[in-house]
Amino acid sequence: MSAPSTGKFGSRIGFILAAAGSAIGLGNIWRFPYTAGENGGAAFVLVYLGFVALIGIPVLLAELSIGRASGKNPVGAFETLDPKRGSKWPWVGSLGVLTGFGILSFYSVIAGWTLSYLWRALSGEFASAMSPEQSDVIFKQIISSPVEVVVMAGVFLLLTAVVVRGGVSGGIERAAKVLMPMFFVVLLVLAVRALTLPGGGAGVTFLFEPDFSKLSGAAVMSALGQALFSLSLGMGAMITYGSYLQKQEPLGLAGVSVALFDTAIAVLAGLIIFPALFSVGAEPSAGPGLVFVAMPAIFDQLPMGTAFGVAFYALLAVAALTSTISLLEVVVAYLVGERGWNREKAVWVVTGTCFLLAIPSALSQGAVDIQLFGQSFLDLMNILFGNVSLSLGALLIAVFAGWRWGADKALAEMKGMPMGGLWAVAIRYVCPLAIAGIMIYILVTGNFF
Description:
By secondary structure, the protein is mainly alpha-helical. The chain is about 75% helix and about 0% strand. The chain has a two-stranded antiparallel sheet. Mean pLDDT is about 85; it is low at about 1-5. It has a single domain, classed as Hydantoin permease (Orthogonal Bundle), CATH 1.10.4160. It starts with 11 loop residues before the first helix and ends with a helix.
């Protein structure tokens, strides 16, 4: 008996928007600006862009090729392309499914924070003068409220489940065609507004005029980690979406388009946040709290600050939703394709189980002292799945595409992609060595980005 069909994307633009939505998320709007801010700005951005070109795009194309060539979910893909009895490669697909599930459990918590902030922006709470210290108090109140953090994570998972329940063309593609254009419009409006702020030019200088004296070894490694995280590599999402791509579509063009969209969004996010920060004299190296602590403190100082705040946190929520959709779809596709479940059952079982795992992550940030190995539960999940597991998955996928399955077969799936020989060199040598380097760096230094 054949496994149930998971469906296909109905159009090229539907695939590009959905895959771009998977890559574009809090990693672009939340993580990229504060990581760039902590590592000197423009010099970090240049290294990040180099890693996207040399490593991110080759691994992305490898995942899409594996997905479309097999037409299967991450586990089924490796079983199809390496059918040798006793092959261990399907475990790489299993790692991707597990990674997607693990990331979704803590990512939904941070996504829930965006809903909390959106509500406060709509209620006008950020319209009154507020110091960074007062903003920090609000952030701590949110993450310390057990009811609020758990409920908001649950609401976000519910929104995600409703979209994924609709299937590939009826749910994911339809949502992407609405959410992503809206996302781009709001992002552009915010960028234009930020660039016209008094003193905002200093933020542009910070972002685009490199000072290489500020570039450390840790900054280089952070740039590589950001490239992997930002493009959703190593978690099976692009293998899954690649399996939904029609055979006649030019895979190389589609993959590069996704990477360009993702990179452009990260840079645009910098063009929103850094001019806004410099216009009010705020510090760009505020760290992970940049979006949730530093930004609310400057909304009241901006013309039309309330509208700016509402649009900004609505943007964050949409970015998070397009990513959680792909994370949930990875696990659902596995259960539908390999276990024979119907989509309805798979969506609700995975969502419910993920919600249970999200609860300790939600509570561990202030409501309850939940620590393991000296880390809060959410931070530990981020280290295990968002850093280590993600990097390991990307490394193994590069080795599989370049050596086990073969770069020639992957290139055949790309159907005459320009500079195919360069891609083969990158996927065989550059990507494995660079990703292995970052993993060794993590293990030796304990610097988890």
